[in-house]
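Incident log, support desk, overnight shift.

02:14 A customer reports that sequence design results differ from what the structure should imply. Their input is reproduced verbatim below. On-call engineer (initials T.W.) acknowledged and began investigating.
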């Protein structure tokens, strides 16, 4: 490429591009554009991540675990005797959420916006069981402390915004029948989506036999 008189550029194919001046990009503006693009990309990725984690919370596996816990509580099961597998599914999920927010892999503000109430009510329902297991020595004395810490963090963020989510025993008990029904309906939908309708033919199905030739 050849520059003539600081105003015209002639490329190898002979085309002329007339320029009023040759401008170099402003480094500050260029960096600002890069940072803005990176912020947008990070925002999109963060939203997709939160959606994925929210979908995991609303998955059939989580539904079944939560229903098992609720039915056990409703039946008057001793807190220390709740189904361990179901408790572990819920507790491990929130342990993971705490780790992701503490290490900066998930924005705590976005988690708060999406799942604050769920964190706090989950901990309120499982707290008696976790405390019982800690005292019994069934598990480590600091079992699910990250889950507990995450619930406290979400409550603190609520308070800073002038919000609150009820987690008292009276509220949890009143919500239980409706929540169990809601989970049951959700599971029925999941099962219906998996069902593959099979339509049987009303008459014999014609079959054509093709003989192989030597």
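02:41 Re-run completed on a clean worker. Output:
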């Amino acid at each position: 490429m050849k520059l003539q008189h600081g105003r015209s550029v002639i490329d190898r194919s002979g085309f002329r591009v007339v320029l009023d001046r040759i401008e170099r990009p402003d480094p500050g503006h260029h960096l600002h554009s890069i940072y803005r693009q990176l912020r947008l990309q990070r925002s999109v990725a963060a939203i997709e991540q939160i959606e994925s984690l929210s979908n995991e919370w609303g998955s059939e596996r989580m539904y079944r675990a939560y229903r098992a816990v609720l039915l056990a509580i409703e039946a008057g099961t001793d807190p220390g005797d709740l189904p361990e597998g179901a408790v572990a599914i819920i507790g491990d999920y929130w342990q993971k959420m705490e780790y992701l927010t503490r290490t900066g892999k998930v924005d705590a503000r976005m988690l708060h916006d999406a799942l604050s109430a769920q964190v706090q009510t989950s901990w309120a329902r499982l707290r008696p069981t976790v405390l019982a297991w800690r005292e019994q020595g069934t598990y480590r004395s600091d079992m699910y402390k990250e889950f507990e810490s995450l619930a406290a963090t979400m409550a603190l963020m609520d308070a800073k915004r002038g919000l609150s989510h009820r987690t008292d025993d009276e509220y949890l008990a009143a919500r239980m029948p409706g929540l169990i029904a809601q989970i049951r309906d959700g599971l029925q939908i999941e099962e219906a989506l998996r069902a593959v309708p099979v339509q049987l033919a009303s008459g014999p199905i014609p079959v054509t036999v093709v003989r192989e030739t030597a």
